[in-house]
Design a protein that fits this description.
Elements: H1 8-15, H2 18-25, H3 32-43, E1 45-47, E2 61-63, E3 66-68, E4 72-74, H4 88-98, E5 102-104, H5 112-116, E6 121-125, H6 132-142, E7 147-150, H7 160-165, H8 185-192, H9 199-208, E8 213-218, H10 221-229, E9 234-237, H11 251-262, E10 267-271, H12 277-285, E11 290-293, H13 295-302, H14 306-324, H15 329-333, E12 336-338
C-alpha cells in the first residue's frame, strides 16, 4: 500500500535489476552528499499559522512566464527506458496531466521531439563538444519553453556503485538525441562532454538562445550572481542529487544565500533531496520559486504509477499547506523557519 511518495522506492527495488536500482539510487564517492541532502531537509523546521480559515489551498504558481498547477517540475533524468519500456514518454504524459513542466534530458532514451509532443517541456542541455547549438535549436523547434543548461558536470563524478557493478546500458537503451552508441556511461561522458566551459560560453549561449535560459548546478551565491549577470532567467540550486562532487553542502542549505543574492532578479529552483510535498513546502518557505523532483518519480515509473505518484505529491503539498495555515504559495513564503 502506497501512503507517501517515498514508498515507491522499495516497490521499485523489488522489481528492478540490482545494477539499475544502484544506477538510480547511488551517489558519488562515499555518498556523503546524498545522505546530507535528506538530513538537511529533515532538519528544516516550520512554524505553522493557525485559524487561517482555509478550505482549499491554492498550489498553483508561475514559473518562467507560464502558470502551473504545482511549484514542481520533473527533473531531467537520463535513460528512463531502463525503468520502463515507455520511459520518458510515460512520465512526460503524467507531468502534462498533472499540469507541471517536464524537463527533457540531453541523455533521454526517447528523442526530445517525441517527448515535447506529449507534454509542456523544458530542455536540459549538457555542454557537449560541437553540438550545443544544434541541440538548442532542436529544442526550440520542438516547442520547449526553456533551456536548462547543466553546469556542474565538467566530468562525471566517481559513482562507486556503478563502477563496482561494471554498469553498462543494454543494447536497446541509449541517448536518442545523439548519434552516439553508448554502453559504458562514464566513458561516454568523458568523450562527449566539454570540460572547460566558462562564463564566456554561457554568455555566448545566452546571445543565441531565443527562449528562457536557466542555469542548473549552482551552490555558491557568487555563481548565482554571475549567472544573472550573464543573462540567466533562472538558476537551479543543485548538487546533482549527490552524484557529482561528494562532500558538498546540501542543496537546501545553499538555497537561502542564493535567494538572498538573486531572488528578486530571477527564478530560483531547488533540486536534490525532495521526497515529499512537505519538502516542497519547506523549499518554498526558504525562498525557492519551485522545485525539481527526480528519483521518487523514477521509482514510480518502474512500477507504472507515475500518475498516482504526482497526484500523491499534490495531496501531500496541499495537506502540508493547510496544516501550516498557508492559503497559497505567497503565504508559504511567509512561514517562519529554522533548524533545531
Amino acid at each position: 500500500m502506497v501512503e507517501s511518495l517515498a514508498d515507491y522506492e522499495a516497490l521499485a527495488e523489488s522489481v528492478l535489476p540490482s545494477d539499475v536500482y544502484d544506477f538510480v539510487a547511488g551517489g558519488s564517492g562515499s555518498e556523503l552528499t546524498l545522505r546530507r541532502n535528506r538530513a538537511a531537509f529533515d532538519g528544516v523546521t516550520l512554524t505553522p499559522r493557525v485559524l487561517a480559515g482555509i478550505s482549499e489551498p491554492d498550489t498553483s504558481c508561475r514559473l518562467l512566464g507560464e502558470r502551473w498547477e504545482l511549484p514542481v517540475a520533473v527533473a531531467p533524468m537520463a535513460y528512463q527506458r531502463l525503468l520502463h519500456p515507455e520511459g520518458e514518454l510515460l512520465l512526460a504524459q503524467a507531468a502534462a496531466a498533472a499540469g507541471i513542466p517536464y524537463v527533457i534530458s540531453t541523455l533521454s532514451s526517447v528523442p526530445l521531439e517525441k517527448i515535447a509532443a506529449v507534454a509542456p517541456s523544458w530542455f536540459q542541455l549538457y555542454w557537449l563538444k560541437d553540438r550545443v547549438i544544434g541541440l538548442m535549436e532542436r529544442a526550440v523547434e520542438a516547442g520547449c519553453g526553456a533551456v536548462v543548461v547543466t553546469v556542474d558536470v565538467p566530468i562525471m563524478g566517481r559513482r562507486l556503485r556503478d563502477l563496482r557493478n561494471s554498469f553498462a546500458l543494454p543494447p536497446d537503451v541509449g541517448p536518442e538525441n545523439l548519434v552516439d552508441k553508448v554502453t559504458e556511461v562514464r566513458a561516454h561522458t568523458a568523450a562527449a562532454f566539454e570540460p572547460a566551459v566558462s562564463w564566456d560560453d554561457l554568455e555566448w549561449l545566452r546571445e543565441r538562445c531565443p527562449i528562457p535560459l536557466v542555469v542548473k548546478g549552482i551552490l555558491d551565491p557568487r555563481d548565482a550572481r554571475r549567472a544573472v549577470e550573464a543573462g540567466a532567467d533562472g538558476v537551479v540550486v543543485s548538487n546533482h542529487g549527490g552524484r557529482q562532487l561528494d562532500g558538498v553542502l546540501a542543496s537546501i542549505d545553499a538555497l537561502g544565500p542564493v535567494v538572498d543574492a538573486v531572488g528578486k532578479e530571477c527564478v530560483v529552483l531547488l533540486d536534490s533531496g525532495v521526497r515529499s510535498g512537505l519538502d516542497v513546502l519547506k523549499a518554498i518557505a526558504l525562498g525557492a520559486s519551485g522545485v525539481l523532483v527526480g528519483r521518487p518519480l523514477l521509482w514510480a515509473l518502474a512500477v507504472e504509477a507515475v500518475d498516482e505518484a504526482l497526484e500523491l505529491l499534490k495531496q501531500e503539498l496541499r495537506d502540508a499547506m493547510q496544516l501550516a495555515g498557508c492559503a497559497d504559495l505567497a503565504g508559504a513564503r511567509e512561514l517562519s523557519h529554522g533548524r533545531p
